[in-house]
């Protein structure tokens, strides 16, 4: 049996969707669907990632071969298949999808319970098409949720820096580094999640995010990194020569203006700081002109950072900035183990209580940044909300919504939806007609009839963020 084509977008749906063309009222000509965050962990979402989906997947042209392949698989799978409808797309539209997608600008922060994206068919022969692509379009939840979590972490770091640092604006973009590539389920997840983080920050070790940024968002270099040790590069010298491993890092990577990170807990973090770094190599670190970043990587994060900062302060000294907080001389600390919102808050609070600037510490975040999110983190939903139907007495508008008695929070919106700005507020408007020109809308048509109409760079998206 021949393998299925990787680019057959007809198959990128849920099985039961293939039966829906038989379930809508007779005479249905148009369906309208929308995406929203129904609440969740954060009060607003930072929308991101739709442009990738549109360029990577919905720009593919459907062919007769794809239709035949999909019919064979889906019917054998036990579902009916809208063969005539898909062949109509091939013959009447040259394989281009007759859909119109409107969405808020990427990078925009939108309060929950508002429409973020709307989808409708542009050909009355295939009204089931907006529902068919729910599965692929819904995946924008992932990039949006990562971007949202990253944004709120940025706000925590920003507040601490503004309170304790003279260089908050320069420091902030590099305070939360992406360590998450190995902790996600696929290369694509690494690229998408990693790039979502980078609309808020500029530090990353996820190279796949740079590739995705360059290919789909016009970003030449989306992020930056620094030379850094891992346990194998230190312990390969043997415990008796730990200091030689550290000396090698200084000799190879330290020069005026450089920054390099050295994991220092392979054996005894306290001894490494007090003896190896603080005595044996102290003057070499200072004379080299670079900035040594010491990385604890085990134990309770808040306790280990506190230990490291205090010990380094005792050995290398501090300078007090204009806000009255101490800044380590020649050295910094990077915490890359056990980092999440709670540990970041605790570490920053300890620094402030001890009189140290938040500038002294940066964070590396792995699985919690790119993988410890799901569709329910922000309770994403994609629902049909309106239909246009030819009935016995003529064409009529049909609102569509659900309102389960057992869960009022799942009451969906009805009507043709739009997002508008009213003063300082964003408000979802609900129209009971398809004949609207969307006055004062913040949404834009980003896709129509197989063509991507908005193609923005990462810099533009970052400008909104």
UniProtKB/TrEMBL annotation:
GO terms for molecular function: ligase activity; nicotinamide phosphoribosyltransferase activity. Keywords: Glycosyltransferase, Ligase, Pyridine nucleotide biosynthesis, Transferase. Pathway: Cofactor biosynthesis; NAD(+) biosynthesis; nicotinamide D-ribonucleotide from 5-phospho-alpha-D-ribose 1-diphosphate and nicotinamide: step 1/1. Residues 8-101 form the Nicotinamide phosphoribosyltransferase N-terminal domain. One of its GO terms (biological process) is NAD+ biosynthetic process. Residues 174-434 form the Nicotinate/nicotinamide phosphoribosyltransferase domain. Diphosphate binds at residues 182, 231, 295. Beta-nicotinamide D-ribonucleotide binds at residues 205, 295-297, 336-337, 367, 375. Its EC number is 2.4.2.12. It comes from the Bacteria. It catalyses: beta-nicotinamide D-ribonucleotide + diphosphate = 5-phospho-alpha-D-ribose 1-diphosphate + nicotinamide + H(+). Belongs to the NAPRTase family. NCBIfam families: PRK09198.1. This is Nicotinamide phosphoribosyltransferase.
């Amino acid at each position: 049996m021949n393998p299925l084509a990787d680019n057959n977008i007809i198959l990128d749906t849920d099985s039961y969707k293939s039966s829906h063309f038989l379930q809508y009222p007779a005479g249905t000509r148009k369906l309208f669907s929308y995406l929203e965050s129904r609440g969740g962990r954060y009060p607003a979402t930072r929308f991101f990632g739709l442009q990738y989906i549109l360029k990577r997947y919905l720009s593919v042209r459907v062919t007769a071969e794809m239709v035949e392949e999909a019919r064979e698989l889906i019917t054998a799978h036990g579902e009916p298949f809208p063969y005539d409808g898909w062949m109509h797309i091939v013959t009447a539209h040259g394989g281009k999808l007759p859909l119109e997608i409107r969405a808020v600008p990427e990078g925009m922060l939108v309060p929950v319970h508002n429409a973020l994206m709307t989808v409708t068919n542009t050909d009355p022969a295939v009204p089931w098409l907006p529902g068919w692509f729910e599965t692929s379009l819904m995946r924008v939840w992932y990039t949006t949720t990562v971007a949202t979590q990253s944004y709120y972490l940025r706000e925590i770091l920003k507040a601490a820096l503004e309170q304790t640092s003279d260089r908050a604006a320069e420091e902030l973009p590099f305070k939360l580094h992406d360590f998450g590539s190995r902790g996600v389920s696929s290369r694509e997840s690494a690229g998408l999640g990693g790039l979502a983080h980078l609309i808020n920050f500029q530090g990353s070790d996820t190279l796949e995010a740079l590739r995705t940024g360059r290919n789909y968002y016009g970003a030449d270099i989306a992020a930056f990194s620094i030379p850094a040790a891992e346990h194998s590069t230190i312990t390969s010298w043997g415990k008796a020569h730990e200091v030689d491993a550290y000396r090698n890092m200084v000799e190879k990577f330290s020069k005026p203006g450089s920054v390099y990170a050295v994991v220092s807990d392979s054996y005894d973090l306290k001894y490494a700081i007090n003896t190896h770094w603080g005595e044996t190599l102290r003057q070499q670190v200072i004379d080299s002109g670079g900035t040594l970043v010491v990385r604890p990587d085990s134990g309770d994060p808040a306790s280990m950072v506190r230990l490291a900062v205090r010990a380094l302060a005792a050995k290398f000294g501090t300078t007090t900035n204009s806000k009255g907080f101490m800044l380590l001389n020649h050295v910094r600390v990077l915490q890359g183990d056990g980092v999440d919102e709670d540990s970041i808050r605790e570490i920053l609070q300890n620094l402030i209580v001890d009189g140290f600037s938040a500038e002294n510490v940066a964070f590396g975040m792995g699985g919690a940044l790119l993988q410890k999110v799901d569709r329910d983190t922000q309770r994403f939903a994609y629902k049909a909300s309106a239909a246009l139907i030819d009935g016995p007495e003529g064409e009529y508008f049909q609102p569509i919504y659900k309102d389960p008695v057992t869960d009022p929070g799942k009451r969906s919106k009805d009507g043709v939806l739009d997002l508008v700005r009213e003063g300082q507020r964003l408000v979802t408007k609900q129209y009971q007609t398809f004949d609207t020109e969307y006055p004062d809308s913040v949404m834009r048509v980003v896709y129509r009839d197989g063509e991507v109409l908005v193609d923005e760079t990462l810099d533009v998206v970052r400008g909104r963020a």
